[in-house]
Amino acid sequence: MGSKQRQHWRSSKVIGTSVTPNFGDTNLTANTSYTYFVVAKDAAGNESEDSEDVSAKTSQTLQKKQTIRGVIRDQGSNDRLHRSSVTYSENGKHHISQANSRGRYALQRLEPAHYNLTFREPRHYTKTLSVNLTDDTLVKNVTLQKR
């Protein structure tokens, strides 16, 4: 049967569907065992047999994904800067985020860790800040000086 969609099950409850075999589970409890299986459906709606069960246990503590957010302003006028970008690296990957039309930025789904954030805006000096993200959302408002 050529599968069109997959239902992902945790114990006796569907926790989501996908068109690929990969699926991430959320809202788990630390130090808990879970059992999963998959049911595939073809384009006609025919279901496969349940896959073999797979069991997994979460770690003693679950790390929550965090957010760094703030507003980027001009140092002299205090105007919000809406063409700004924020760059940072996480796990060896380079990321760029753009501020919105109100000068707000949000770096979401980050692991608690140390980050170097580089803020850029045309005709302003670049600014790099070092932040330590722990268990809470971090608000980091930034001002950039005109050249």
What's the arrangement of secondary structure elements?
Layout: E1 5-10, E2 13-18, E3 33-41, E4 54-57, E5 66-74, E6 85-90, E7 93-98, E8 104-110, E9 114-120, E10 127-132, E11 138-139, E12 142-144
Parallel strand pairs: 5-11, 5-12
Antiparallel strand pairs: 1-2, 1-3, 3-4, 5-8, 6-7, 6-9, 9-10
How would you portray this structure in words?
The protein contains no helices and twelve strands. It has strands at 5-10, 13-18, 33-41, 54-57, 66-74, 85-90, 93-98, 104-110, 114-120, 127-132, 138-139, 142-144. The model has no long low-confidence stretch (mean pLDDT 87). A hairpin with a 2-residue loop joins strand 6 (85-90) and strand 7. The strands form three sheets. The chain has a four-stranded antiparallel sheet with strand order 2-1-3-4, with no helix packed on it. With 147 residues, it is mainly β. It has two domains: 5-57; 66-144, Immunoglobulins (Immunoglobulin-like), CATH 2.60.40.10. Helix content is 0%, strand content 48%.
How many strands, which pairing sense, and closed or not: the largest β-sheet? Answer: 4 strands, antiparallel
First-to-last CA distance: 64 Å
CATH superfamily of the largest domain: Immunoglobulins
**Residue-averaged pLDDT, rounded?**
87
How many structural domains does the protein architecture include? 2
Q: Tell me the number of helical segments per DSSP (H or I, 4 or more residues long).
A: 0
Tell me the series of helices and strands, N- to C-terminal: EEEEEEEEEEEE
Short description:
0% of the residues lie in helices and 48% in strands. It is built from no helices and 12 strands.
